[in-house]
Specification:
eight-stranded antiparallel beta sheet; 3 helices; 8 strands
Length: about 150
């Protein structure tokens, strides 16, 4: 077996081209920004090109932000702007991008051979619950950090 090391940016450029042709692309997740919904080095995601009105709150999308490709969740849309954030982000920072900078939408997740549809009611429910509880989770985490510091 031959291994080839290719920079992530090149792989994602190729994925972007395939998505533009209407092909489905499967990539392995790298990084922890989408934990616990997507796990680093374990999960595979199937991406498809977004069609007209397929971009909704809660969708995980591949987009370009400040010269890098990210796979984050749509939190909100106002006018022509989409506001996105990684699920493992404990701040209130949101990335902003336009529709033309969104190249793919995650339609399926494969975790250890088990396929999960992002259109299932369970996935949609948990995604929206995760978005809605962000402020509460940030406050609880801040309290936890403060209590850890006080105990030392």
């Amino acid at each position: 077996m031959v291994s080839i090391c290719v920079p992530v940016a090149e792989v994602l450029e190729l994925a972007k081209e395939c998505l533009a042709k209407g092909e489905q692309v499967v990539i392995r997740i790298r990084g922890n920004s989408m934990y616990p919904f997507l796990c680093d080095s374990t999960d595979l995601v199937a991406l498809e090109a977004p069609v007209s009105d397929s971009l909704k709150r809660g969708n995980i999308v591949l987009f370009r932000y400040k010269n890098q490709y990210l796979l984050h969740r749509i939190i909100n849309k106002k006018g022509a702007n989409y506001y996105l954030r990684g699920d493992n982000n404990w701040s209130f920072h949101l990335e902003t991008c336009k529709k033309e900078n969104i190249y793919g939408i995650v339609v399926k997740v494969n975790r250890n051979g088990r396929e999960i549809s992002c259109d299932s009611w369970q996935w949609r429910f948990l995604s929206l619950l995760w978005i809605r509880t962000h402020k509460c989770r940030v406050c609880l985490y801040a309290c936890y950090c403060y209590l850890r510091k006080v105990r030392k």
